[in-house]
Amino acid sequence: MTTPATGVGAPIRRKEDHRFITGKGNYTDDINRPGQTYAVFVRSPHAHAKIRKIDAAAARAMPGVVGILTGADLAADKVGGLICGWMIHNKDGSPMSAGAHPALADGKVRYVGDHVAVVIAESLAEARDAAEKVAVDYEVLPAVVDLASATAKGVGTIHDVAPNNVVFDWHLGDKAATEAAFKKARHITRITLANNRLVPNAMEPRAALGDYDAGEDSFTLYTTSQNPHVARLILSAFIGIAPEHKLRVIAPDVGGGFGSKIYVYAEETVCVWAAKRVGRPVKWVADRTEEFLAVAHGRDHLTHAEMAVDEEGKILAIRVKTRANLGAYLSTFASAVPTYLYAPLLSGQYDIPAIYAEVETVYTNTAPVDAYRGAGRPEATFVVERLVEVAAREMGQDPAKFRLKNFVKKWPHQTPVIMMYDAGDYAGSMRQAQKLADVAGFGKRKRDSARNGKLRGLGYSAYIEACGIAPSSAVGSLGAGVGLWESAEVRVNPTGNVEVLTGSHSHGQGHETTFAQLVAGRLGIPIEQVSIVHGDTDKVQFGMGTYGSRSGAVGMSAIVKALDKVEAKARKVAALCMEAAEGDIDFKDGKFTVKGTDKSMAFGEVALQAYIAHKFTGQQLEPGLKEGAFFDPTNFTFPAGVHICEVEIDPETGVTKIEKWTAVDDFGTVINPMIVEGQVHGGIAQGVGQALHEGTVYDKNGQLLTASFMDYGMPRADDLPSYSLGFNGTAAPSNPLGIKGCGEAGAIAAPPAVINAITDALGHEEIAMPATPQAVWLAVQKMAKSIAAE
Amino acid sequence: MAKKPVTFTLNGSDRAAFAEEGLNLLEFLRRGIGDLSPKYGCGQGACGACTVIIDGETHLACLTMADAVHGRKVETASGLANGKVHPLQEAFMEYFAAQCGYCTPGMLMSAKVLLDRNPSPTRADVIEAISGNLCRCTGYEPIIDAILATANMRARA
Amino acid sequence: MYEFKYHRATSARQAANLLVKADDAKLLAGGHTLLPTMKQRLASPANIIDLGKVAELKGIEIKGKTIVIGAMTTHAEVANSAAVQAHLPGLAALAEGIGDPQVRHKGTIGGSVANNDPSADYPAGLVALGATIVTNKRKIAADDFFQGMFATALGEGEMIVKIIFPIASRFAYAKFPNPASRYALVGVAVARKGASVRVAVTGAGENGVFRWADAEKALGAKFSAKSVEALKASAKGLNGDMHASADYRAHLIGVMAKRAVMAATAK
């Protein structure tokens, strides 16, 4: 290894941390512009209503008001609606029913928190005061809230394009082969489950600051985005704010995203547009209630699933019917989540000959639902890992052995649902995890718990995910409106330090460190001499952003490609400077040497010579040392692993305590193990949150009852276990670094591990998420009754 | 709105500024004083992102009136490093206790008060001390480890 | 938050005068309830009287067989008080269990008692111990003070000055926290003083804190965990909401009562 202290694989400290620990992080709300005004949105108090009239006269007369704008003003400026960027087709081939999604209401509101108007004032307090004076005359319509009955006759229509509230009715897989397999089955396991709706709750609420330069006729938008270039593209090409070259989008430090900051929202659209309208910078920061009401939520599926198994315990087929809630409007990638990010993962880590999935998505009068950490894959994993667990228990088999028997054992492996798994070691991860978790000692621990009146349970989750979403041509054929490659530019300065411009965006992942590790290691220079530039469309040419655990596999691979080009050019410079043939130049440990001689030049000297350009002519070689690259991988990557959760339940109160958490993950190549562990911890925390604490509750009128941290159970420090982590990496063949991605694994793996552990402890298969103390206590009561009845 | 002068000590320096009546300390520090290290997370006293230290105790700046710090000592994360980084900051880096960094300033304040009062806390003490600070990124483990490591390091020194 | 006039009181008398004179005035103690409500624009008092600088309302002292705690004493001060720890350790533990450190440094006993949040911890402690609430006008027994959700016996212009706790030989409080807010989903305080046993329940009742007569009787006969194990609290009159049904709350009352007795009898 060239620079073992800082290169690939080294657990070095994060470069970004110094500013975070000294309170110098630069988040959107930390940025202020001269003459800045403050925006407050008038939001719908009703889940479903027609707007008869908006009377802003009284509000306009309030002190400090700079402007009040409505949907009519957007229409007058020909500002288009928000878009959904992934086209899904119905079973019959017709396109999905996408209702219009105006940034400010166009005669109708469709969820509590929907945007009716914006009030812009000199101060936040004045904007709030005036917003209360905007009189909106609503004709309240019946709200469609319950997912199960959203398509029932007579419940009401949310969008005219979807009279029965169905967005699309989609399927994947071979129905006939699946039916045939079920006919041959010795055993069929049937489960019905809900994947609970979650509110992402990044600690930094969403924020936007729009600025307009009248001299240049150009806009700048500072926003909490995971992908500023995609935001600019959508704001330009579809919404029509300004041409791309007249719109700069800056996503500075972003305080967590987890998917929720991928999308282009009404608020940022309005702020940047309104900046020109009022001729002043316009700032908006969500308060936490607005964040609860109007951020894109996650999950919210109802599923019935069946698994066919033969007499030897081999899985023959899986059949799944899912209804997914997409909320009141289609958010930016909403349609992709319950389809191509979901059903293709229903094969899990298993060799299953036939799979058939049907997904019906519906509109409801609730906040839009889109990708949240894992996006579709947690939902698929929950279905598969609950099916497998229940089947094993029903057949009296050990759940781990049942999994081992059915694991894919040879790669590449083509599943019946699109995916070609290219590398892995599922059985190896299972065995390693069992050892780490001391599964052998579980029986004794269970008896010890029983002596103290407690119930102990152990649950497995063998998850797989598809990450580094690509290649572009493949996702295009499935309906994606964009390509999913990544770009990079490596600028070597004359003094030998390096700036790397990447289209990936860091909002906690530590790219400034891991990307620099890659570059420093490759060029043999100190890591302090590498800086990573991201999050600004004026600096970085184009990029697709960070989501789907793609920054390592796709973003870093683009850097590798650019580095290849930099090295090739530098070799030419070195050869000309040292008067040697290019083929005789070696590059190692930051040094260019001429084979068989003692002639050498350090990387920095070569960089300087490339810019001084005294040692070669322009005809021989272009001066300078700066290269760019785009990388489009050949396949998804397939991180996979086994998580084991051990719980102890207090049957008296129903409290579930997680006693042990073991995870063995295959992320392929690991750049910085400490950063990867951090991603796993955080993912598990969110998965445990989903399984035990986080439930989103709307009442029947569509009022969000869990709209604050007092009512929505966020995991706190005393809710979470310590973790015991292992890695069992197999290199991904689809990218040059062999990276698979780690950002979502924990959130995908955790929920079924927890629920499998609780149901193991209870000896009872019916427990919904979140498995709150009350839910567990009720299950304990039910068990006690059924035992008494026997 | 009427403004009142507020004189206080911020991270060891005397400061004086006018605060509108009813202004909370978080907005006062961020907008009036220009110390951006305390963060807005919920405005309702439920997340700890705005935690500051007033006279040695942790307080939520979003639920403290600006006027209430008149004549008192306020500490924030931006003043924790005094020439060189504080041992807690060092440990937060060493243990990867920050990811997106947004909860970090508040978390450091809670940790500092804990260690100032209890130089050798147990793991349970640490968990209790940060139970009012939400973090959505880390799962808390590295934060707990960093605080415990700081205590151990001081004990050895 | 709507505009309001802010007054910083320097004495209890001045605060009480302002409370009578100023229009639509509210007392600000720790602010952890009033300020969030005002920020959400659910309350809009015209005048706020901050008690933070009123030294005479702070402090803890032993007076004969009682502990007297000033209204503006924070939860952290009660929790860390050597006097409370020595004479009524269960009360120190109750205060230590309120919220998180930030809440305990700001929240005050007077603020909590005056607010009478149905899921607050102190009301159970006060009722079980048979505390006396001393206002600027009179003395009120805890049994008479708490009058339903957020309702108290406090009249116009009346403010809490201090609270007098009789020292009980046995006292403990056990709570089952709401997983989201950490307020009491159910909290039970048990106190024994001579032959008298009082059991008070918070978090569960539709009308706030209440006494559990069956448990008092059973524990009066024999002060042991076994005495309450056989009892079943009735779900009638209990809260049912998205966090917990009335039945679950009723069940938890029994469990928490048992745990409180165990804590009270532990050496």
Structure description:
The complex is a heterotrimer of chains A (790), B (157) and C (267). Helices cover 28% and strands 22% of the residues of chain A. Chain A has 790 residues and is of the alpha+beta class. In chain A, strands 3-5-1-12-9-10-11 form a seven-stranded mixed beta sheet, with helices on both faces. In chain A, strand 9 and strand 10 (218-223) form a beta hairpin. In chain A, helix 9 (377-394) packs parallel to helix 18, helix 14 (511-523) runs parallel beside helix 15 and helix 15 (551-577) packs across helix 16. By secondary structure, chain B is α+β, with helices and mostly antiparallel strands. Chain B folds into two domains: 3-79, Beta-grasp domain (Ubiquitin-like (UB roll), Roll), CATH 3.10.20; 87-156, [2Fe-2S]-binding domain (DNA polymerase, domain 1). Chain B is 34% helix and 17% strand. Chain B starts with a strand and ends with a helix. The mean pLDDT of chain B is 95. In chain C, 36% of the residues lie in helices and 23% in strands. In chain C, the strands form three sheets. A five-stranded antiparallel beta sheet of chain C has the order 4-5-8-6-7. Chain C has a four-stranded antiparallel beta sheet with strand order 9-10-11-12, with helices on both faces. Chain C has a three-stranded parallel beta sheet with strand order 1-3-2, covered by helices on one side. With 267 residues, chain C is of the alpha+beta class. Chain C has two domains: 5-50, 2-Layer Sandwich (Uridine Diphospho-n-acetylenolpyruvylglucosamine Reductase, domain 2); 58-265, 2-Layer Sandwich (Uridine Diphospho-n-acetylenolpyruvylglucosamine Reductase, domain 3), CATH 3.30.465. The model of chain C has no long low-confidence stretch (mean pLDDT 95). Classes of the chains: A alpha+beta (790), B alpha+beta (157), C alpha+beta (267). Chains in contact: A-B, A-C, B-C. Chains A and B meet through helix 1 and helix 17 of A and helix 2, helix 3, helix 4 and helix 5 of B.
Topology readout:
The complex is a heterotrimer of chains A (790), B (157) and C (267).
Chain A: H1 17-21, E1 37-43, E2 49-55, H2 57-60, E3 65-70, H3 71-76, E4 108-109, E5 115-121, H4 124-132, E6 135-140, E7 166-173, H5 175-184, E8 187-195, E9 207-213, E10 218-223, H6 228-238, E11 247-250, H7 266-278, E12 282-285, H8 288-294, E13 301-309, E14 315-325, E15 354-362, H9 377-394, H10 399-406, E16 413-414, E17 420-421, H11 426-436, H12 442-451, E18 455-464, H13 472-477, E19 486-492, E20 498-502, H14 511-523, E21 530-533, H15 551-577, E22 585-588, E23 591-594, E24 600-602, H16 603-612, E25 626-631, E26 640-650, E27 655-666, H17 673-693, E28 723-727, H18 745-762, H19 773-789
Parallel strand pairs in A: 1-12, 10-11, 14-15, 20-21, 27-28
Antiparallel strand pairs in A: 1-5, 2-4, 2-6, 3-5, 7-15, 8-13, 9-10, 9-12, 13-14, 16-17, 18-26, 19-20, 19-25, 22-23, 23-24, 26-27
Helix pairs in contact in A: 9-18, 14-15, 15-16, 17-18
Chain B: E1 3-10, E2 13-20, H1 25-33, E3 51-54, E4 57-60, E5 73-75, H2 87-94, H3 104-117, H4 123-129, H5 141-156
Parallel strand pairs in B: 1-5
Antiparallel strand pairs in B: 1-2, 3-4, 3-5
Helix pairs in contact in B: 2-5
Chain C: E1 5-8, H1 12-21, E2 25-28, H2 34-39, E3 47-50, E4 60-63, E5 66-70, H3 75-80, H4 82-87, H5 89-96, H6 101-106, H7 109-115, H8 122-129, E6 132-135, E7 139-141, H9 142-145, E8 160-166, E9 170-177, E10 184-193, E11 196-202, E12 210-211, H10 213-221, H11 225-229, H12 246-265
Parallel strand pairs in C: 1-3, 2-3
Antiparallel strand pairs in C: 4-5, 5-8, 6-7, 6-8, 9-10, 10-11, 11-12
